[in-house]
Amino acid sequence: MAENEVTQTPVTIEFDDNAMVAQLVGPYSKNLATMERAFGIEIHQRGNVLALIGDEHDVKATVEALRSLERRYGQGRPIEQGDVDGAIRFARESQKRSVVPSPAKIPAARVKEIRTRKRVIEARTPRQADYITALTQNTLTFGIGPAGTGKSYLAIAAAVEAFLDKRVDRIILSRPAVEAGERLGFLPGDMKEKVDPYLRPLYDALHDTLGGDQVTKFLESGVFEVAPLAFMRGRTLSNAYVVLDEAQNCTRMQMKMFLTRLGENSLMAVTGDPTQIDLPRGESSGLEEALHILEGIEDASVIRFTDKDVVRHPMVARIVKAYDTLDQTRHRRYND
User: Fold this and answer.
1) Who contacts 137 (Cβ-Cβ below 8 Å, separation ≥6)?
2) 164-188 as b/e, with b when 16 or more CB fall inside 10 Å?
3) Residues 117 and 209: beta-carbon distance below 8 Å
4) Distance between CA atoms of 266 and 327, rounded to whole angstroms?
5) Which residues pair with 174 in a beta bridge?
6) Domains defined for the chain, CATH in brackets
7) By C-alpha distance, which of 245, 246, 279, 243 is closest to 261?
8) pTM of this prediction?
9) What is the pLDDT of residues 307-320, one digit of tens each?
10) Which tens digit of pLDDT belongs to each residue from 249-307?
């Protein structure tokens, strides 16, 4: 069949489980409409039978996405909008590989989920799967990219999984307390009360993976620690999973200090978005320097996310892309 030729005979898929089909199709056939737009095909439903009409490769990718969601339901997991989006992204990746093979870019043993006591967290984009694999298999992992790509959340979830599996004895989460337009000194309370709002996203991720009571217990015992970056100076962090979030706001010296805290039997994840630096004018980001000198060294991995990996509301991806376009335009004007 010639490329882009539309199949005249529909490819049909029949399912046995009525409840599964209801979730697969979604309210008002919303999930099927999402797949039609994503793959450029037509999907017609008649009871438990779906008929797919379109380009052969697109139909094949759609079938792969549908079967992936069917397997998910068979494992006792619900089918939600985010899961449909994830199935589409993985099917697209598989579709691209079948057209232009690139085995060097595909991890030999890709890990697609993180298991915590409260929930199973699944990769929803191929890049997220690469990131989970890196967090699992490397001593040092950088997660770089825009908001909404899951880079911080997945790093903390990986830390919780390692702790529950007894691969580490404690979890240490940190952020640089850089003022992003606000003045810490004018906030009420003591130092902890001033800094805690900056650390709140880290607490939230812990609560989402373990539950409030356990998180409180581990925080009170010191097994879990959430602290500003400045508190890391002079320490050796052994038998721990250490996560540095918002690393674009580290200075060069702070980044070097943090990376050299790594102790025996420890794992480290560094996350950040180089497009959202809040450092004072003239102060260079330690994250950018670290990426420049450490990318490619043994037992370290750099995973770079793009707007295509945003897993929040679709509007977030469009916002990120619009800002990237603006930045690129300004960069070209500056260099012309």
Assistant:
1) 111, 301
2) eeeebebbbbbbbbbeeeeeeeeee
3) yes
4) 37
5) 227, 244
6) 11-99 (3.30.1370.10), 129-311 (3.40.50.300)
7) 243
8) 0.77
9) 888 876 667 667 76
10) 999 999 999 999 999 999 999 999 998 888 888 888 999 999 999 988 999 999 999 88
Place of tokens 């990120």: 320
Mean pLDDT over each residue of the chain, to the nearest integer: 84
> In the predicted model, what is the mean pLDDT of residues 82-86?
88
Task: Supply 262's token pair.
Answer: 């790594």
Rounded alpha-carbon distances, angstroms, from residue 50 to 60, 85, 185: 13, 19, 61
User: Do 198 and 177 form a contact (C-beta atoms < 8 A)?
Assistant: yes
3-class DSSP assignment, residue 243:
strand
CA dist 190 and 107 (Å) reads: 47
3-state secondary structure of 11: strand
- 140: confidence class by pLDDT, cuts 50, 70, 90: very high
pLDDT given at position 300: 93
Could you give the CA distance from residue 126 to residue 147 in angstroms, rounded to a whole number?
17
CA gap 116, 165 in Å, rounded: 9
Comparing CA positions, the residue from 77, 150, 156 lying closest to residue 116 is 156
